[in-house]
Amino acid sequence: MTAAAAIGLGIRFRVLAADPDESAAQVCADTVIGDYRSSDDLLAFAAACDVITFDHEHVPQPQLAALERAGVAVRPSPAALRLTQDKLAMRARLGELGVPVPRAELVSSLADVQEIANRTGWPVVLKAVSGGYDGRGVWVCRSNAEAADVLSHDVPVFAEEFVPFDRELAILVARSPSGHGAAYPVVETIQRDGICHEVLAPAPGLADQLAESAIELGLKLAGDLDVVGVLAVELFETRGGLLVNELAMRPHNSGHWTIEGARTSQFEQHLRAVLNWPLGAPTATAPCAVMANVLGGHDSDVHGKLNHVMAADPALKVQLYGKPVRPGRKVGHVTALGEDIAAVRARARRAARYIAAGTEEP
Amino acid sequence: MTAAAAIGLGIRFRVLAADPDESAAQVCADTVIGDYRSSDDLLAFAAACDVITFDHEHVPQPQLAALERAGVAVRPSPAALRLTQDKLAMRARLGELGVPVPRAELVSSLADVQEIANRTGWPVVLKAVSGGYDGRGVWVCRSNAEAADVLSHDVPVFAEEFVPFDRELAILVARSPSGHGAAYPVVETIQRDGICHEVLAPAPGLADQLAESAIELGLKLAGDLDVVGVLAVELFETRGGLLVNELAMRPHNSGHWTIEGARTSQFEQHLRAVLNWPLGAPTATAPCAVMANVLGGHDSDVHGKLNHVMAADPALKVQLYGKPVRPGRKVGHVTALGEDIAAVRARARRAARYIAAGTEEP
């Protein structure tokens, strides 16, 4: 999706991919096959680039440091990216900044978890310190046995208080090296089992004051953490206000609706930001937009059912990622736009479910 | 621009280009270098394709016939494309269909032109029978001397009556092999010296009845000429009604505004049509949109001034084509959207002129 945005801007865009079958490699005219964990591959790739940016947070710090030492413009910076690679570090940093986050503490044994449960009651939320992506790496444990299962995987985890939130929100902002910032409307994200299913833009019925708080928080965090590019902040809306759940410093699933739903898509915005170009208008193009993820079902052919969805709803926008279908995997998304949130949401949900599984539900 | 549309649709898209520096080759992950005038190159390219389509009308008929004989799905068909390759054939065919066109006749000598001028007075419009593109190949001759200059180039031409039109309009429609059709709002095109400078969507102040006639005409022509893909019909608005000036059976400059200004861009629509997928909604996304071409000036660096334009108008959309600048060449375009046509037009004109030449005009 960033490659498509680069075409219009006349940017020479290249991708480092592990495999020619990766989504970005399929559509980028200048793909280099290499390993993002190899400093040699990264340095060779970067030699022809003015700026390096990311669509995931897995490039390790030593390799990022090697790029910086070589004088490569790495945006966002390794120091900022570290907060998306180490969730405990992120929580500590946000704590220093006075930003409300769920209480968290490192656990190294089942006894530690049990001790927390004795204090707070079950459930206890366990999260991987690193490598979390899209909810994988987050486990809501309701018993000793569930916690023991998580710990058995030998992934460093920390425990987080279970927050009885009303709903989940996200705020997407962009920031350029010169400090120019832009914020998109606050959205509601509908998650199930830690996977984002839908994004409603703007968040229905959100109090103006909370929306303003979220925007202020997003812009403040981008500045305080020295983020360059887009920053997605996942939030819990609770009776006591907003809590920060997760950060991402790249185009994010919660912003896919901006491709058609905002004057500047998050992909164009990310490119403009990392190139230190003026940011584009983040204003909405329609009263409401709903993005629904196409989650792989048991049918491996998502293309076969596109025709029906397109015929049923000619105004629907479909985006497929060129990924092999696996159950639960995000293989594409749809976006519907319109005036009535309930109607728009019904269109998006129906289409996403039909493309994935061929089934209709009332 | 078609490559960008293909990304979202999950289509495997390949391009036959003469040179790796061509606009499409720069951004398409699967570019084959070859000659569109070579049947061997075309057949080798087509072997891996389900459907072949075009972004220009220069592939000669014998080579198109070779593709058809080999069982390749060529859309639009050679028979339809012929009408965009031979303007006299097009006028004859439209005449048979009862579609109003300017009167035309073949001329082979200056005496022929003089004879027409004696009947109708100057100017006499001379047009190349083939190879016209974007106004090049059209000469409004106001004297014997001007006509002699055109004839001296040894290009087969015909003479056309000079139509005293009020303005130029265009209607863009799409048609799929199954006969499904869709029409975009009628636009006004602002041409100078045979080059399109601006497109106003929808055409300001167009009478409902004329708009309906234009849409009906576009859809009828697409059907009667068996067009598959998008069809752009350039029209003269005269006191006596609409006259057809030119046809194009590919995404067309008069439809670039649809990238942001319509729910389905002409590029996505063309792909959907030639693949026989259901067509997308051609509805406008804003009350008005203005596209202004960035015409090369004497400054070869169009990128250097982008920043200023983006800073001055964050909601403006810019599209650069990756072409070397030559004076008068279309090297990109900008689109502004909004509610007030005069304000939107001023934004688009100002930005296009500034990117091209760095100058501001009142």
Index terms:
D-amino Acid Aminotransferase, Chain A, domain 1; 15 strands; homodimer; Rossmann fold; 3 domains; 362 residues; nine-stranded antiparallel sheet; Dna Ligase, domain 1; four-stranded antiparallel sheet
Give a short synopsis of this structure:
Chain A has 362 residues and is α+β, with helices and mostly antiparallel strands. Chain A has 3 domains: 2-74, Rossmann fold, CATH 3.40.50; 103-160, ATP-grasp fold, A domain (Dna Ligase, domain 1), CATH 3.30.1490; 167-357, 2-Layer Sandwich (D-amino Acid Aminotransferase, Chain A, domain 1).
General description of the model:
Two copies of one chain form a homodimer. Chain A folds into three domains: 2-74, Rossmann fold, CATH 3.40.50.20; 103-160, ATP-grasp fold, A domain (Dna Ligase, domain 1, 2-Layer Sandwich), CATH 3.30.1490; 167-357, ATP-grasp fold, B domain (D-amino Acid Aminotransferase, Chain A, domain 1, 2-Layer Sandwich), CATH 3.30.470.20. In chain A, helix 1 packs across helix 11 (266-274), helix 3 (39-46) packs across helix 4 (61-69) and helix 5 (78-85) packs across helix 6 (87-96). In chain A, strands 7, 8, 9, 10, 11, 12, 13, 14 and 15 form a nine-stranded antiparallel sheet that branches. In chain A, strands 3-6-4-5 form a four-stranded antiparallel sheet, sandwiched between helices. Chain A has a two-stranded parallel sheet with strand order 1-2. The first copy, chain A, is built from 13 helices and 15 strands. The first copy, chain A, has helices at 2-9, 23-27, 39-46, 61-69, 78-85, 87-96, 110-120, 144-151, 208-224, 258-261, 266-274, 306-312, 341-357; strands at 15-17, 31-33, 104-107, 124-128, 138-141, 157-160, 167-175, 181-183, 187-192, 195-201, 229-238, 241-248, 288-295, 317-320, 330-338. Chain A has 362 residues and is an alpha+beta fold. The interface between A and B is large, with 44 and 45 residues.
